Amino acid sequence: MQKKLLSGLFWLLLANLIVKPLWILGIEVGAQNAVGNSAYGFYFAIFNLAYIFNILLDLGITNFNTRNIAQHPQLITKHLPGILSIKLLLFVLYLVVTFTVGALMGYGSDEFRLLAWLTVAQFLNSLILYLRSNLQGLLLFRWDSLFSVMDRVLMILICGCLLWGPKFSIFNSQFSIYHFVYAQVAAYLLTALTALVVILRKTHLSLPFTPFHSLSLPFMLVILRKSAPFALLVLLMASYNRIDPILLRALASDADAGIYAGAFRLLDALTMICYLVSVPLLPIFSKLCKEQKSAPTNFQLSTFNFQLQDALRLVFWPLMIFAVGVSVVCAICAEPLMDLLYPGRGALYVPAFRVVIFGLIPIAVTYIFGTLLTAGGHLKQLNIFAASSLLLNIVVNLILIPRFGAAGSAWASLTAQTFMALAQLLLAIRLFHLPPAAFRLPRLYEIKELASQLLEKD
Questions:
Q1: In this structure, is the dihedral angle defined by the CA atoms of residues 271, 277, 281 and 283, taken in order, positive or negative?
Q2: How many CB atoms lie within 10 A of CB 124?
Q3: CA 82 to CA 99: how far, in whole Å?
Q4: Which of 167, 259, 434, 448 is such that its CA lies 20 to 30 A from the CA of 98?
């Protein structure tokens, strides 16, 4: 089991450490510099609206599927066709809800045009994540690693040509925010089709030509009922993580939302490391929790706790050292970093960046212990924590945005993330009876012993 975890982490980190920084710090920064803060803030606010409601494209199915396939891999041939049909129906629901909310917010034709393309991009991205969840559940981490970066590689190639290649006549215009979105849609589409082909080959399954052939009402109701707690959790967490630019645009301006987007970008890139660590953790923790529930008491008290502590110690301290160290260095070097990313305009982003970057620490805690609690099925408590974090974020934003703008929103984000991390950490300690040894920084000789023990285990 630990070999699977180490292998999964290695391939995911290797692939994403090469590609994701190029995308976020190269292409996204290049796009914002090319179109300006106001245009990018306009895009970023509408993107986050589409992002918040993208849970309607999934309703928790992806997280449920990862956990379910990890515990019952034989179900993939039964579930894959039916869930794909469900996702097509959910896309219709997603379109209705997002356009309704856009109308209530007073969107005009420009906003709706951008929102339409972003909803298509979000659907394709959601489809990729669902297809990857099947690979994760089957512990096929190398294939998952490939599809975790394939879309970004394609986007880098397309946007790189648009931004810095020769001006070509197909668009007959300068780079705009719509070119940025078109590239995302094209890359997501190619990646989703390729991932689907690979899964069909791995499972020896052929899909019907009619999209709703495999859909039955009882199956749909069972899947949605089981995935509903996951759906609520993802919606609440997406809301408290992504509502800031929406509130900034409503309470301040597009330019303030653009400044927040610029300050947030480096955190977004670094957060990817924490997310990648959690990807193999969910199926690993899920299998451990299943074995613990079905095993005798002695096994539960010894083997389960030993394996769980090993897995936690394998990721907790490296991730904490990374998060704390990087946050402090980035805060100290905020001015040269922002000047490097946004030449001549770096000072605009420094106040918000120095606050928001420390969100990496609670985010790292959340990705570890939120994943453990999710694998253990403790979704009710997680949903309560996430709802409280969302309320806290909104209240602090309403207080601070009128006075401090983007920096105030950064403080609101950090406050909500810290509350969520502490709540999850304390709950995990209580529910899984984690001793202090699970959090102790091992000495050098203990690291060698722990590594050899993990590698000896099957």
A1: positive
A2: 23
A3: 27
A4: 259
Neighbours of 205 (CB within 10 A): 13
The rounded distance, in Å, linking the Cα atoms of 433 and 372 is: 13
The one-character DSSP state at 209 is S
Q: What per-residue string of b and e applies to 307-346 under the rule 16 or more CB within 10 Å gives b?
A: bbbbbbbbbbeebbebbeebbeebbeebeebbeebbeeeb
Q: Which residues, at least 6 apart from 296, have a Cβ–Cβ distance to it below 8 Å? A: none
Q: Quick one: which H or E segment has residue 117?
A: helix 109-137
Mean pLDDT in order along the chain per 10 residues (458 residues): 52 65 78 84 87 80 71 70 83 92 88 93 91 77 78 88 65 75 93 88 65 61 72 77 83 85 86 76 72 50 60 80 93 92 87 94 92 84 91 93 91 94 92 75 54 45
Instruction: Indicate if the alpha-carbon torsion angle 167, 170, 174, 178 is positive or negative.
Output: negative
Q: What span, in angstroms and rounded, lies between the C-alpha atoms of 151 and 183?
A: 10
pLDDT on residue 455: 44
CA 318, 322, 325, 331: dihedral to nearest 10 degrees? -160
- Please state, as a whole number, how many other Cβ atoms lie within 10 Å of the Cβ of residue 74: 7
What is residue 21's predicted lDDT score, i.e. its pLDDT? 72
Reading phi first (left if > 0) and then psi (alpha if -120 to 50, else beta), residue 433 is in left
End-to-end CA distance of the chain: 6
The tokens for 112 are 């709706």
pLDDT of residue 291: 64
Q: How long, in residues, is the chain?
A: 458
At 76 the three-state DSSP class reads: helix
- SS3 labels along 354-409: HHHHHHHHHHHHHHHHHHHHHHCCCHHHHHHHHHHHHHHHHHHHHHHHHHHCHHHH
Asked if 342 and 350 touch (Cβ cutoff 8 Å), the reply is no
**pTM, full prediction:** 0.65
Give the residue among 211, 226, 57 at the shortest CA–CA distance from 127: 57
Which pLDDT does position 82 carry in this prediction?
76
Q: CA nearest 383: which of 338, 420, 356, 437? A: 420
Whose tokens are 């109308």? That residue is 103
Letter for the amino acid at 46?
I
